[in-house]
Structures are given as structure tokens and as C-alpha cells.
């Protein structure tokens, strides 16, 4: 292997190569699933009825690496404990990880309770969850105290895809610095491009830095919506921006009511193919 191959940027390496280097078990598992299923697609299941929730997951399950679940009581109106049991069963059957889009945003002692207690007990079943960087490093410390013993991973929100988002500049740099200090638990970012090296000082060791980048705002047929969401194609996100996972919701299941599972399957396959093709072209550059 040449020296240039040994020092390829993370996004120019295969998911399999990167999986071998990750110490965090959730990150390693996600990368291995992506390679095995030839999918970098995450479906964001933002619906209010459990029937629609599971109809969508049953349809897309074989084609995704990750299900981004919104299972808060203010979203899934008929939530009960059986929802989690069935979601875990589908995760094992279809080989995808569960990403609970919780967006924690409180002090360390509070998020410990939110993550481990209450109705949901998120840490018991979500392989990955996410948090805002606003509270500072204590939010990572609190979540890690619960998540690390359970082999979980944390994603920080470094950038957002909505118009006018404040997650730019120094906020993004500070989020990356916080993650860099806790690479045992923080496995990546919600972001729009690569994060390696951002905000690094001359004394930071970034030689082996490899953060997963999960990108929302992905669409094949639309460029935006009335709520300020902005869409980019899988090719733009994966090939040009170097992101790792495309997060798609309405582009696959529409309004999410009385879903047509055949159409959902068709769209999931379409996005899976587009994302994987962009990834193959990207890693060819580094081969």
C-alpha cells in the first residue's frame, strides 16, 4: 500500500476500512451495516400514528442502514411500550440501527435522567442519539455516563439544513472541539460537510480523526419547502460534500398518512441506489 493510500482522508476510504479503525461500537456497527447492505440511507420516520410508523419501517427496512425515529410523546400520538419492542425486533430482522432524534439540550444532570429514565428509557434501545452543543461539554459528560456502558454513540448538531439556521461559524467550531475531546462517545455530526480539522489547534492530534457526517435535507425531486427546509441531491451530499449518511423523510413517504407501501419501497430503493452510486464514485478517487 502506498503512503498516499495510507493517508487518505476518511471520506475517501471505504466504510469497511473506516469501521476497522473506530473504537466506538455503535459507529463500527453502522459502518459495517452500510457496507454489507450497500446503503447509506437513513429514513426519518416523522409521523404521528404507529401504524404509519411501522408500515414505513417494514417497507424501507431492508434498504436502510439507519432508522431515524421520532418517538416522542408529542409526535407519536399512540405510543406505548410495544412500539419499542417492535422497533427493536425490526432492527434485528432487517439489520439497521436505531437513531432516536432526541436533540438533547440541557445540563448534564438533566440529560442523564432524560436519556435513561421516564417513559422512553432511550438509552436502552437507541443505538445512536443526538444533542445540541449549546449547554457545553457537560451535556456530553452526562449522556456518556449512561451511553458508554451500553455501547451507544452520540451525534452532535453542528450544522442544520433549514434556511437561516444559527449553527454556523464559531458555534460549529465549538461543537467539533467538544466532540474531539470525547471521541470515545461522540461519533459524528448532523452537518452539511466534513468536520475533520475544524477548530483544531496546533496541539490537537487530528491525524486519525474520522467523524461520521449525517446529512438531512436530501431530496431528488424538490429544492425546498414552505417551512424553510433546503434540499440537496444525494450526489451533492455524498460525493461533493463528503457526507456519509443521507437522511430522507417526505421524499420517500410523502405526508406520512395512509402510506402506499409499494410507493415507499420504490422511493427507498431509488434513494438507496443514488446514495450508493455517489459513494462508489467518491471512494474511487481515493483508490
Verbal overview:
The protein has 287 residues and is an alpha/beta fold. 40% of the residues lie in helices and 14% in strands. The protein contains eleven helices and eight strands. The chain has helices spanning 3-6, 15-19, 25-37, 50-60, 81-94, 108-116, 138-147, 169-180, 234-240, 250-253, 261-286, and strands spanning 41-45, 66-69, 97-104, 128-131, 153-157, 186-190, 212-215, 245-248. The chain has an eight-stranded parallel beta barrel, surrounded by eight helices. Helix 4 (50-60) packs across helix 11. It is globular.
Strand count, sense and barrel status of the largest sheet are: 8 strands, parallel, barrel
Mean pLDDT: 91
Query: Structural class from helices and strands?
Result: alpha/beta
- For the terminal residues, how far apart are their CA atoms? 10 Å
Shape: globular
Low-confidence stretches are: 1-6
Give keywords.
single chain, 40% helix, 14% strand, 287 residues
How would you briefly describe this protein structure?
The chain is an alpha/beta fold.
Amino acid at each position: 500500500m502506498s503512503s498516499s493510500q495510507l493517508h487518505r482522508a476518511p471520506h475517501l476510504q471505504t466504510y469497511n476500512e473506516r469501521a476497522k479503525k473506530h473504537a466506538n461500537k455503535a459507529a463500527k456497527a453502522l459502518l459495517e451495516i452500510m457496507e454489507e447492505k450497500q446503503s447509506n440511507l437513513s429514513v426519518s420516520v416523522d409521523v404521528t400514528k404507529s401504524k404509519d410508523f411501522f408500515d414505513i419501517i417494514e417497507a424501507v427496512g431492508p434498504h436502510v442502514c439507519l432508522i431515524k425515529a421520532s418517538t416522542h410523546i408529542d409526535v407519536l400520538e399512540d405510543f406505548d411500550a410495544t412500539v419499542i419492542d417492535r422497533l427493536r425486533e425490526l432492527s434485528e430482522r432487517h439489520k439497521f440501527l436505531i437513531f432516536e432524534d432526541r436533540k438533547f439540550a440541557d445540563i448534564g444532570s438533566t440529560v442523564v435522567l432524560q436519556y435513561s429514565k421516564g417513559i422512553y428509557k432511550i438509552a436502552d434501545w437507541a443505538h445512536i442519539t443526538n444533542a445540541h452543543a449549546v449547554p457545553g461539554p457537560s451535556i456530553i459528560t452526562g449522556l456518556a455516563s449512561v451511553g458508554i456502558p451500553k455501547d451507544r454513540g452520540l451525534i452532535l448538531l453542528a450544522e442544520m439544513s433549514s434556511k437561516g439556521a444559527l449553527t454556523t461559524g464559531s458555534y460549529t467550531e465549538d461543537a467539533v472541539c467538544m466532540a474531539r475531546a470525547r471521541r470515545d462517545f461522540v461519533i459524528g455530526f448532523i452537518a452539511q460537510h466534513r468536520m475533520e480539522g475544524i477548530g483544531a489547534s496546533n496541539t490537537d492530534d487530528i491525524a486519525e480523526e474520522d467523524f461520521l457526517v449525517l446529512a438531512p435535507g436530501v431530496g431528488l425531486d424538490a429544492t425546498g419547502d414552505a417551512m424553510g427546509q433546503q434540499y440537496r441531491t444525494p450526489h451533492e451530499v455524498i460525493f461533493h460534500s463528503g457526507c456519509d449518511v443521507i437522511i430522507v423523510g417526505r421524499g420517500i413517504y410523502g405526508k406520512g398518512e395512509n402510506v402506499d407501501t409499494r410507493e415507499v419501497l420504490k422511493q427507498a430503493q431509488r434513494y438507496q441506489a443514488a446514495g450508493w452510486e455517489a459513494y462508489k464514485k467518491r471512494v474511487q478517487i481515493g483508490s
